[in-house]
């Protein structure tokens, strides 16, 4: 006797969203741009391919130092995180981004470190330091004098040194770059702190290249300062991110010197 079978329930859209993308999906990760992870690095956006699938090596000419595809993706994520935020991710953030366990993320990090691409510091939440093995992945940005985020401090037109930065840090910033050291606390509410290195993209025409809300480096009385840019009719306003400092107002007819706009903050811990 054939028994009646209960109807098969269709999976609801809400359940599908909750379940997320299956491992190994070829769908373009929503947290990537041209293959590079991008801020805010949403959880579940990255993919390492099929679970437990063997990952082939991508640079076999380096022998025992060659990375697997999975290791290369995690290394690129770390570079992007440091490049765009100025500090490394936690193991939990790596695990969440790729939808893997914290243990699996730690195992990948240890393998990458053993091949000489990372240095790990056990006991530290963000105890990851990049080691420069590939010069092609590094851009050297000239550090010029100092920049005031508060009361302007003279920015000497001389290069103190050249700072090596991951190319992924600058992937979205084509053009001539320079770096200035932040002094003061007028931009602290924007997450820019005293001692940070501000990476600036030079602009030749601020009227067409700078938008309201961009953080810019402006030269005032031969001194540089970092502020948020706003255009009001015939006036330029430079706003601090600290209520203890006043807004700086400049007349456009006086040809304000906007050196460039901020593309990133470099910070060492």
Overview of the molecule:
A hairpin with a 2-residue loop joins strand 9 (215-220) and strand 10 (223-232). A 9-stranded mixed sheet has the order 6-5-7-8-13-9-10-11-12. Strands 1-2 form a two-stranded antiparallel ribbon. Strands 3-4 form a two-stranded antiparallel ribbon. It contains 5 helices and 13 strands. Residues 1-29 and 151-157 have low confidence and may be disordered. It folds into 2 domains: 20-130, Orthogonal Bundle (Arc Repressor Mutant, subunit A), CATH 1.10.10.10; 136-266, Umud Fragment, subunit A (Ribbon), CATH 2.10.109.10. By secondary structure, the chain is α+β, with helices and mostly antiparallel strands.
Q: Could you say what the CATH architecture of the largest domain is?
A: Ribbon
State the CATH superfamily name of the largest domain.
Umud Fragment, subunit A
What oligomeric assembly is this protein in? single chain
User: How far from one another are the termini?
Assistant: 73 Å
Question: Which residues sit in consecutive blocks of at least 5 with pLDDT less than 50?
Answer: 1-29, 151-157
Count of DSSP-assigned helices: 5
The secondary-structure element order is HEEHHHEEEEEEHEEEEE
The gyration radius over C-alpha positions equals 23 Å
Average pLDDT level: 79
Features:
269 residues, alpha+beta, Arc Repressor Mutant, subunit A, Umud Fragment, subunit A, 2 domains, two-stranded antiparallel ribbon, 5 helices, 13 strands, elongated, disordered N terminus
Give the helix/strand layout.
Elements (H helix, E strand, L loop, with lengths): L12 H7 L12 E2 L2 E2 L31 H17 L5 H8 L3 H13 L3 E3 L7 E3 L7 E11 L10 E8 L10 E7 L13 E6 L3 H4 L5 E6 L2 E10 L2 E5 L8 E4 L5 E10 L3
Parallel strand pairs: 5-7
Antiparallel strand pairs: 1-2, 3-4, 5-6, 7-8, 8-13, 9-10, 9-13, 10-11, 11-12
Helix pairs in contact: 2-4, 3-4
